[in-house]
Design brief:
Blueprint: E1 21-24, E2 34-39, H1 46-56, E3 61-66, E4 70-71, E5 91-92, H2 113-129, E6 139-144, H3 146-157, H4 169-174, E7 180-184, E8 206-210, H5 219-228, E9 232-236, H6 248-263
Parallel strand pairs: 2-3, 2-6, 6-7, 7-8, 8-9
Antiparallel strand pairs: 1-3, 4-5
Length: 265
């Protein structure tokens, strides 16, 4: 394991063109003690979430906003495709674009194997851990919609990481859990739940936020999360939808969660 150092932009060059990231450093980069990885929602890009990271301004936190692994045709978002030659600003995290037979909408669980390989294996394990010396318990995840599902899915998948025998018990734990994960309106994808029947619950502390009339995070979806995570907290906003937080009351529980996790392991 290399000595821990603050990542540089060039550390991520090898991920191109498969994965694009935007870095937001704390005001004094040398104070970095944790990393926040942000995943946008269906049809968005990393740019607005880089702005969101600057607004958060978490002390001592390097924010990495990641672009979805596949482009999304604008027509699927109800947008005109007036210039097909122009690079798209719309991306998604799924392996495929399939329609749900029950609703006719895009399937909320299209499979996330490509995103898992690029984000968990290449970005986190190969770059942040292998190259820069960080641990999984230094890393927070935040996602909106489909990006929230990815954040929860990665937190679910990492619990089955291979364990090295000749290391301390504490080191075993840090390799199988993140510092925390926040999902805005995104459920845990069934495709990212380990198939082992005797599996342990994920030890990554998770926070889900959603509106009163959420279809994605309904009672059944919340029950699945309680079954799969040992520390799962739920915030039900006064508004009906699962849009991004727009005021202090909606943002407060997220900031409280971040503050607690930044104080913890």
């Amino acid at each position: 394991m290399p000595a821990t150092r603050i990542p540089k932009l060039e550390d991520f060059d090898h991920l191109l063109p498969s994965l694009h990231v935007s870095l937001t450093f704390p005001e004094v980069p040398e104070t970095t003690t944790a990393i926040l990885i942000l995943f946008h929602g269906l049809g968005d890009s990393e740019a607005p979430f880089a702005t969101f990271a600057k607004t958060l301004n978490l002390p001592g936190v390097l924010a990495i906003s990641v672009r979805g692994v596949s482009p999304l045709p604008p027509v699927l978002l109800g947008l005109s495709d007036s210039d097909p030659a122009r690079p798209t600003n719309h991306f998604h995290w799924g392996d495929d674009l399939t329609l749900s037979p029950s609703t006719g909408d895009l399937d909320p669980d299209p499979g996330f194997s490509a995103a898992e390989r690029l984000v968990l294996e290449k970005l986190i394990r190969e770059t942040l851990i292998g190259k820069c010396g960080w641990e999984t318990n230094d890393i927070l995840l935040f996602g909106f919609g489909q990006g929230g599902s990815l954040a929860l899915g990665l937190s679910s998948r990492i619990r089955q990481s291979e364990r090295v025998v000749d290391i301390s018990e504490e080191s075993k734990v840090t390799g199988t859990a993140f510092k925390g994960a926040v999902s805005i309106g995104g459920p845990l994808p069934a495709s990212m739940i380990p198939s082992l029947s005797a599996r342990q619950k994920s030890r990554t502390p998770a926070l889900i936020c959603h509106g009163r009339s959420s279809e994605s995070l309904n009672e059944d979806a919340v029950d699945v999360l309680k079954k799969e995570f040992s520390d799962m907290r739920e915030v039900k906003w006064k508004k009906n939808d699962d849009s991004m937080p727009k005021n202090r009351d909606e943002m407060l529980p997220i900031m409280q969660f971040f503050a607690e996790r930044l104080r913890g392991w």
